[in-house]
Design goal:
This protein is an all-alpha fold. 66% of the residues lie in helices and 0% in strands.
């Protein structure tokens, strides 16, 4: 099955714009209303949780068990579950890596989606709801004042990213899979295409993550005293 989704077409641009707008709208609606913020946060978390479980059921029904393929070992799988736990429990140890890894990773996925189904299909809708949900949720938590990265949070996010990559890389080596595209680039266009062949694009991805995390941490740095 091939997708007819047009990269950077009108629908794609509309989705890209809608994601932060949705996070901002939710944050505006609950700003200064602690109980409404809590209910919205929990509702968002439950929605993403159910959305993911329904997707697992759909894949199992249509594809069956395909071990070692089809496991939730991609970077955005980690980000999504960090996001769900954060929304439901509001813990800094899940929020901080979820914020940096989630927004950077899911952001790249939304910009250069790896789609295989028609544009108007459940798999494509799931892809954007799940990845867009990660970004919108993290922005909602920050903009509504419910969460904020602590000092040095970007380094903790980078540590989680590399720890997960080491685990997934070991799995890839044992089972000859390609989770997180650690062994080869995705077939569809992506930012990795500009980073050279394997293994150099892995170093390029690490450098890009460092730069993105640093830029994302700028709004949360305290100004130095004069």
């Amino acid at each position: 099955m091939r997708t007819d989704f047009v990269l950077f077409g009108p629908a794609h641009f509309a989705i890209i714009a809608a994601i932060p707008c949705f996070g901002a709208l939710l944050a505006w609606a609950v700003r200064g209303k602690p109980e409404a913020a809590r209910r919205t946060r929990l509702g968002f978390g439950l929605f993403l949780l159910v959305n993911e479980l329904v997707w697992y059921g759909y894949k199992l029904a249509h594809e069956g068990s395909r071990f070692p393929e089809g496991l939730p070992l991609q970077l955005c799988d980690l980000s999504l579950w960090l996001t769900v736990i954060t929304l439901l429990a509001l813990r800094p140890w899940t929020f901080e890596p979820g914020f940096f890894v989630g927004i950077a990773g899911a952001g790249m996925a939304v910009l250069t989606p790896e789609l295989w189904a028609p544009a108007w299909s459940y798999p494509t809708a799931y892809f954007f709801v799940a990845h867009g949900g990660i970004i919108a949720a993290m922005l909602f938590l920050v903009w509504s004042g419910q969460a904020r990265p602590r000092p040095h949070a970007m380094w903790r996010g980078l540590l989680v990213l590399n720890g997960w990559a080491a685990f997934v890389g070991t799995f890839n080596a044992i089972f000859h899979t390609n989770y997180m595209f650690l062994c080869r680039k995705p077939v569809s266009a992506s930012a990795l295409d500009a980073m050279g062949p394997w293994p150099w694009y892995l170093l390029g991805g690490e450098a890009a993550a460092l730069v993105l995390f640093a830029l994302m941490s700028l709004p949360f740095r305290k100004p130095k005293a004069a």
